Each structure stands twice: as structure tokens, then as C-alpha cells.
Amino acid sequence: MARVYIEPSGRQVLPFDDAPADIPIGNRPLSEWQKEMLAEAGLQRMDSPTPPCLVIPDNLFTTGPVLSRFVSQAAGRNAVLVLKRSLFGKSTTPVQSHVTATEQGWRFEKVRWVSDGGDDGEPVEVVIDPEEDRFEMPLPPGLGGKAEIALPRHPVMTLHHWVHILWANQAAAASIARRVPKWKWVVRALWAVIRGLSGNKWRVLGKINNIGGGCDIHPTAVIEGSTLGDNVTVGPHARILFSTIGDGANIMTGAQVEVSTVGPNAVVAQLTTLRGSVLYPEAFAGQYLMQACVLGRRAITTGAGFSMDVNFDRDIRVPLDGELHSTGTQFLGSAFGHNSRIGTGFWLASGRSIPNGAFVTRHPRDVIARIPDAAGDGRPWVNNGGTLVALDK
Q: Residue 256 is part of which domain span?
């Protein structure tokens, strides 16, 4: 049995200050995913990097077959992993430290095989294919007309930044679905057609869900292609599409949750739209629209605030290790740290992060607090530093 050493990265993912092992992916910590991938690859974990061995960083997210193929193709030589050039790699390698572009793809310097002779000498490059499918999503003509989304069977990522939490959750959902044998999908789809008495794709999707025990789902709610944990509440006219909902979560009346991960006991407020986002446990999403955002544990966002998520003229940049890095995308929301409280009436630029424990609200002078009795005289009155004054003054 080959051996593996998990090398500490010293990384804490801002603004959450979480260790890599605690990063939530599909409502499970990264440490659980890593434990499964090592078992699937037949690797024995060791406490120190004694050659020959595989060395991986503690923030690596991938699958067991990736590691087993890498070890096999290294064939006892010093080797480094290269992710094959792909849409998935192009979309997810930005902001990753120790990842460099090469002719064949992206070289992950921290994923390596160390031979009996030690780590000396130039390692061979072992190219790993993520085996992606592509999904084409229509967009308005002014936004390019369409966008392609990668659906990898075998993702390879190192998680350094909150944007990687978003991308890893999306990649995990794709990987889980892609690794199910096609015959099982065919059988499940046929059974859904029979149960729904229709071949309509939406009726079929409505029958392809995994629903936990004790859930309270209103009959007008629409749930399609999603996984719900135990004791989840879904209110009237809510919709959940291609999403993972944790135990005890509450999706309130009219809320829309699409391609998102909602943590245990988190709440998506009435009429809130959550798209392509991740909520930690006990988070409360209350903004009218939140796209490509991450809400920390017990973070609260409220209505009448807005997180901007599009740059029209250039890729959005985010800070890491004291420098600004391009994310390679013009579509990205923001991150809200653990226990942060976000009030109403503000606009947050795309790609920003609010620190843990922050309390953000509009200035009191922007809130009408003093209302003279004369305000009822029929003239127009306006806010002036928190006081209503007649417009003609």
C-alpha cells in the first residue's frame, strides 16, 4: 500500500479564518472528503514525509481515482501533478497559490510523488484529465449570449480563498452526479417518468430528489433535482433547484434556491433568491438577490441591501496574501464572515469580503428619525440628516 503525507499549508481561508479541514463542501468538511479520497485510492496516511510517498497539501480537494492514477503513472519517479488544460482548470485555478500554467495545463507544485532518492532532481509531469462535460447556459446578448459551465468527474483544486469554497461546492455536485453509472441514471429517470405519469423534464426532475426524514414541505413548493436533509422546512411557493439543503434548514415562503449549498439550520428568508451560493450552518440570507456569495456561520444579511455580482468591463479581482488576483470571471458576489450582521440600504461591490463579527449598516443620518407635526401640511418633505424638512426650505 502506497503512503501519503498531508502537508500543512498554514492557510486560513479569509474572511472566515477557517482551517482547510473545516471548509464546507456539500455540507461536509473537507477533512471528510479527504478521508474518503485516501481510502478510495488505497493510500495509508503517515505522520512525516518519509520517501517513497505521495505528498499533498491539506487544502487539496480531489477524488480517489485522481490520486491512484497519479501514483501509478509516477511509477516510482519524482513526479508532480498537472491538471490537463480544460474549461474546469481555466475556471478554478485563478487565485490558487503554487499553481502555474504550463503548455499542457496547470502544474500543482504541492501535489507530488517523492521517490526513494528524495526530492532532488526535476520531477516528471503526470497529466490528469478532469474528464469534464460542458453545459451551455444562455445569457442575454449584452452579456455574450451564452456561457459554458464545466462539469468535472474528477476535480483537482487547492482551496486558498473564499471563491474556492464556491467553486469546490459546484465541482463536488458535478462530480457526485458524473460518477454515478449512466445505467443508474437511466433507471432512475424511467422510474421518475412512471411516478410522474409524464415525460416532461420538469415533472421528471421533481421526482429525482433525495428527501430526508421529518421534512415539512408545503404542497405548492417546487423541488427539482435536489437533496434535502432531515427536518427541513420549505414554505409556500418556494423553489429549490439542483441544490443541497442541510438538516433543519428553513426555505421560507417564495424563496428561490438554485445551484446552492445551504448549511444545517440556515434560513433563506421570504422572497429571497439564492443562486450559486454557499451558506454555512445557521446563516440567514435575507437580501432580495444573492448570487455567487458565501455567508459564514450565523451571518445575517437583510433586505434592501444588495451585493453587486457583475463587472461589465473586466474580470473581478480579489485580495490574497497582500496582492490583488484576477478571478478569471466577471461574475462574482461577496463573502460575509462568521457572525457578521449586514443591515439595510447599502451596495457592496463585487468580490468583497466582510470580516468575521462585522456590523454594517447605513448611517443614522440616512434614516428618518425625527418627523415634525407640520409634515402633514401637504407640501413635499425630504430627509435631511435624519430629520424631515420641507422641500422648499
A: 212-362
